[in-house]
Design goal:
The structure is a homodimer of 160-residue chains. The first copy, chain A, has a domain at 8-117: 2-Layer Sandwich (Alpha-D-Glucose-1,6-Bisphosphate, Chain A, domain 4). The longest helix of chain A has 17 residues, at 140-156. In chain A, a hairpin with a 7-residue loop joins strand 6 (89-96) and strand 7. In chain A, 26% of the residues lie in helices and 42% in strands. In chain A, 31% of the residues are buried. Chain A has an 8-stranded antiparallel beta sheet with strand order 1-2-8-7-6-5-4-3. Chain A has helices at 28-36, 38-44, 129-137, 140-156, and strands spanning 8-11, 17-24, 51-57, 64-71, 74-86, 89-96, 104-114, 117-125. With 160 residues, chain A is α+β, with helices and mostly antiparallel strands. Chain A binds chain B through residues 14-17, 56, 61-64, 79-84, 91, 93, 95, 103, 105, 107, 123, 125-129, and chain B through 14-17, 56, 61-64, 79-84, 91, 93, 95, 103, 105, 107, 123, 125-129. Chains A, B: InterPro entries: ASHA1/2-like_C (IPR013538), START-like_dom_sf (IPR023393). Chains A, B: This is SRPBCC family protein. Chains A, B: Residues 26-154 form the Activator of Hsp90 ATPase homologue 1/2-like C-terminal domain. Chains A, B: Belongs to the AHA1 family.
Chain lengths: 160, 160
């Protein structure tokens, strides 16, 4: 298995799915903490220049979440439910409140690569190819890459 | 729009989706109640011969649910999260605990047809065509049809 140091973002040709993968110099438990501890999560999620404010956070199976990303006066709300929070896997719903009809089903896997490294794999499933492709064209790649770069620095600094 | 008196169950040819539709002699509010009130829901969901026991039920956006369907000593558990419970639409996750890795994203719409009639439309989205087709072959059609027939009788009896 070769190392994935930049985020790989792929659209499935046959399913309305986006897949992402990236390796981190962290254990699965550290990555799980970075995704479930609200204070840690707010520090790295999203593109540079936006500040994340957690409005609601209950990171357990059956819980739910909401946060607002702000840049000056502009605010963008996101919310969803945690279907499953278990060692190695998080399954959650995801709605960007600017498009309240849209709901994605997201799955995150934390694959132990040994030697303190973990591969984060993420899958986002929606109910149309048009919606999936519009999301890919929206600039989500920048947010994902800048967010994971922040997480990488936090890991290197011992903050996770 | 013609009447849909039997349940229409369709597999989308291009998306890993099952769609269902059926008309009921009830208002959208009555159908919403039949899907959100745990005592009502337990009385109609699932095939004849199984008894539904609600284990957890919090039918609001961000809530979650779990129930067990029992026939003699055989028990089948199901659980999920309510992503959205709003007038006209419910969005929820769904896992059959016999296949704990599988998660469907379900959307229900209650379309007012006027004259006290409502079209229930339901969509179930999964992340593979194989999983979708196995679910279709599992006999879910019987459970859906027998369940909706029970709901129809409850509506006729004034129980909803």
């Amino acid at each position: 298995m070769h190392k994935i140091t930049e985020t790989v973002i792929e659209a499935d040709p046959k399913l309305p799915v986006i897949r992402m993968a990236r390796d981190f110099a962290a254990t699965p438990e550290q990555l799980m903490r970075a995704h479930t501890d609200p204070e840690l999560f707010a520090k790295w999620v999203g593109p540079d220049g936006l500040t994340t404010r957690i409005e609601h956070w209950d990171a357990r199976s059956g819980g739910s979440w909401r946060y607002v990303a702000a840049q000056g006066d502009a605010e963008f709300g996101f919310h969803g439910s945690f279907h499953e929070v278990a060692p190695g896997r998080i399954v959650q719903t995801f709605t960007f409140e600017g498009e309240p009809e849209g709901v994605a089903l997201e799955t995150l896997w934390f694959d132990d690569l040994g030697d303190g490294r973990t591969r984060l794999r993420a899958q986002s499933l929606v109910d149309s190819f048009e919606g999936r492709d519009a999301w890919l064209r929206s600039g989500m790649e920048t947010g994902v890459n800048e967010g994971y770069a922040k997480l990488e620095r936090m890991i290197a600094d011992g903050a996770v």
